[in-house]
Specification:
The protein is α/β, with parallel strands linked by helices and 569 residues long. The strands form five sheets. It has a five-stranded mixed β-sheet with strand order 2-1-7-6-9, with helices on one face. About 4% of the residues have low confidence.
């Protein structure tokens, strides 16, 4: 999908011809506050045709992006029109001299913005477009995110001074006199007691409907890891169609060095074979070598528009490029764990009991190599503040138990912080490869429903995603249905570590290395010499340990150099 850009400027003298010419180029839309009415959309609204019928407009030829139907919804519902739209989108409306920018409820599309004191507002899906206007500057506030939350940021932040991200489920209203941000979506608490069997039936109906909405006539494709999420997608599609192609990823020589641990216990191959045997899908496994993976650290960083999840980003970009040679769109099992409670921080006592973000648990270990000036900054205090602020926005249920509200807190934090990092990773890598990735689990009706499902249902039989396993156990091989959750595969090959080590050493020895501003170089060199082995627990998520930390530092250093980022300390 092409990059979206927009300027909102009330400082000019307006003429009707200005407005008409300014919106003629979809790549750079400039609204100068003219007295008019207009709509733009970036992304997809999945239910526009249904809405058209519901409004008795009966336009059989309407498409998913029919702006006339959205206009009719605004005429009928006013500003509440947004509550009737589902999908992954950024919608911009101008009614008279008021511009409103809406981001979809689950944050599946991202838009950034910035403004100057007396100048216009700039909006874009590209951070590069915005830094061209206000500069690429990392200040002390940016460093708080970069060294405590990264590769994520506090919701609404970016790594750049003066550039913000519109939060998921928020709208930003701009007129000549003021700007207002409003949250238009939070899941509602519903008090309807249902049996486990009733919940199973409802979940199956909702997810199957979402899968149907995400596939088209003609050829169909999906990623398949042998995990429960992608296996469910493939099984549901394969029971209805015989044209399903599936794709997976392996690393060359990885099985010789794989060592299972609490976050990743098994490899994918055997489980994929079970799915192939049951459904006879047209499957292809792409094998990535370590050199390719290391060389993609820079392209993936540039696609992500900043440092990301190291080899995980590189591998996803590589996989999307391979899939693009055969497909234009593909299904993914992303967003299931956030909704069904599949991550360890939902249920492991050593993670749940500590509070905070369960995917950030080794901050001191991660920042050990920072220099003394940097260590004076209170990164832990900042992290705790972000946790507290995030929790203050949770729609807790005053009539529910403490335990159920704790799950709502974890769900909210995971969806608003961790999931957003994974969504941006998938979007940026797939868009860079030119392939559309569709995510049936990221369905608003499904999320709303699961928000009120009791934890003992979701954790049925003491298993993560126990509910989801029960719903689809009849469609899956028993071993697949009961397989412990495994994240996106990473490389364990020592060759990758050596390649990354060499790249990082070369980068930091250049005079322009930005890491010299932040790190004690003696400690950093020692960490590099030991191949990051002192980092034995994930410092972000479930996969990022020593080798990934070295790769992440390399991405940071190159990011500063390539983007000519200035430091304001």
């Amino acid at each position: 999908m092409s990059e979206f850009k927009m300027i909102v400027d009330y400082s000019r003298k307006i003429r009707e011809t200005d407005f008409k010419s300014s919106i003629s180029n979809e790549e750079n839309i400039a609204w100068y506050g003219a007295e008019t009415k207009s709509i733009q959309i970036h992304g997809e609204c999945m239910n526009i045709a249904l809405i058209g019928n519901a409004l008795a407009k009966n336009d059989e030829n309407c498409g998913l992006r029919n702006l006339d139907l959205i206009q009719k919804m605004i005429d009928c519902y006013g500003q509440d029109f947004i509550h009737h739209i589902k999908g992954a989108f950024i919608i911009i409306t101008q009614i008279r001299d008021k511009v409103s920018i809406y981001r979809d409820p689950l944050g599946m599309k991202t838009i950034y913005y910035t403004s100057t004191v007396s100048g216009p507002w700039y909006f874009s899906t590209s951070l590069d477009y915005l830094t061209a206007h206000v500069g690429a500057i990392v200040d002390r506030n940016s460093m708080m995110d970069l060294f405590s939350l990264a590769p994520s940021c506090k919701e609404g932040n970016t790594f750049f001074k003066g550039i913000q991200e519109l939060k998921m489920g928020f709208v930003l209203h701009i007129d000549r006199n003021k700007t207002v941000q409003e949250c238009y979506y939070r899941p509602n608490n519903v008090h309807e007691k249902k049996s486990f069997e009733e919940v199973k039936k409802d979940v199956k109906e909702l997810l199957n409907k979402s899968i149907d909405n995400n596939i088209e006539e003609g050829h169909c494709a999906s990623f398949l890891s042998g995990g429960i999420d992608s296996s469910i997608l493939c099984a549901v599609v394969a029971t209805k169609r015989d044209d399903l192609s599936t794709y997976s990823l392996e690393y060359e020589g990885n099985s010789d060095y794989f060592k299972g641990y609490s976050y990743q216990t098994t490899q994918d191959h055997d489980y994929i074979e079970m799915m192939k045997e049951k459904y006879h899908m047209n499957h292809e496994c792409f094998v990535c070598n370590q050199e390719e993976l290391a060389e993609l650290l820079l392209p993936s960083m540039l696609a992500h528009q900043g440092p990301g999840m190291a080899d995980i980003d590189s591998a996803m970009l590589w996989l999307c490029r391979k899939a693009k040679k055969k497909e234009n769109w593909i299904l993914s099992g992303e967003c299931s764990d956030e909704f069904f409670g599949g991550y360890p921080w939902f249920y492991r006592e050593d993670l749940v009991g500590k509070g905070g973000f369960g995917w950030i648990k080794s901050l001191n270990e991660r920042n050990y190599c920072l220099n003394e000036r940097m260590k004076k900054m209170d990164f832990e205090g900042y992290l705790n503040d972000v946790v507290h602020e995030t929790l203050s926005e949770v729609n807790l249920d005053p009539f529910s138990t403490k335990e159920e509200n704790e799950i709502k807190k974890i769900t909210h934090m995971t969806v608003h912080q961790f999931m957003q990092t994974l969504v941006k990773r998938q979007n940026s890598m797939s868009e860079a490869a030119g392939i559309e990735v569709r995510v049936p689990f990221a369905d608003l009706d499904l999320f709303d429903y699961l928000w009120n499902v009791p934890w003992d249902y979701k954790f049925y039989n003491g298993k993560e995603k126990g509910l989801l396993r029960e719903v689809y156990e009849d469609l899956l091989p028993s071993e697949v249905a009961q397989r412990k959750k495994n994240p996106f595969p990473k490389t364990y090959h020592p060759k990758y570590t050596e390649l990354v080590r060499e790249k990082l050493l070369k980068s930091i020895h250049e005079e322009s290395s930005a890491l010299k501003y932040f790190y004690d170089m003696d400690k950093l060199n020692q960490l590099i010499e030991e191949r990051g082995q002192s980092i034995q627990t994930p410092w972000y998520g479930q996969l990022m340990m020593g080798p990934q930390y070295l790769a992440y530092l390399y991405q940071i250093d190159q990011w500063f150099k390539i983007k000519n980022i200035k430091i304001e300390f």
